[in-house]
Amino acid sequence: MKAHRPRKRFGQHFLHDAGIIARLVSAIRPGDTDRIIEIGPGEGVLTGPLLEAGARVTAIELDRDLAAALPERLGFPERLEVIQADVLGVDLAAVADGPVRVVGNLPYNISTPIMFHLFKWRDVITDMHFMLQKEVVDRLVAAPGTKQYGRLSVMAAFHCRMERLFTVPPGAFRPPPKVDSAIIRMIPKPLEDETLSRLPQLEEVVRRAFGQRRKTLRNALKGLLDEKAIEAAGIDPMARAETVDLAGFISLTDQLGEA
Prior knowledge:
12 helices, alpha/beta, seven-stranded mixed beta sheet, rRNA_Ade_methylase_Trfase_N, Helicase, Ruva Protein, domain 3, transferase, Rossmann fold, rRNA processing, 2 domains, 9 strands, two-stranded antiparallel ribbon, elongated
């Protein structure tokens, strides 16, 4: 079948390195009882091995031509479903008929919105394996006190346990992107309903804290938490957001609730 011409407007870079594909499949370890949702299957280089392992795969592809070609390219009609859609508009609870695993080579320009869309369906997701821009993975797994640590690090850590797996060079793709990529494993954490109910407040605290990174928390959170409340959370009001871990931000959110 003729190779698909990558479309810049969709941020398409097709993985073609057989060694990298094999490492990714090995990291996912698909099984014949797995229900997998794949985001951005492209030409199906990962979809095929997932199906060959016995998994049922729902592939969500925005590009109409790619979506139409996948069933003919791959076969397995009894275990492959293709949805031509923007994943940001897909209700995963309606797609899933039980626990699902999510995989994908996410378009780098919208990878963060896609991840936060998926966090909404955390109750039905067992794990997620993504190929992302290496810089994004660096930010996701960053520790407090590092340059990469920020709002994305905190909020992703609230939802998931994360593990960087390996780096993927530009030459593994067609066409090669201008940046390195990396594979990350994300496993949703079990969270109580009460904890999840505080999520909007946590998001506001984190957003304000990192809004101007060089500001102290006393200044960044002015009008939201006063100095006394920040101290009651066990945090120095003169500290900056990049030094505060997830537990610290949760403590600040608890103070917001008490206020």
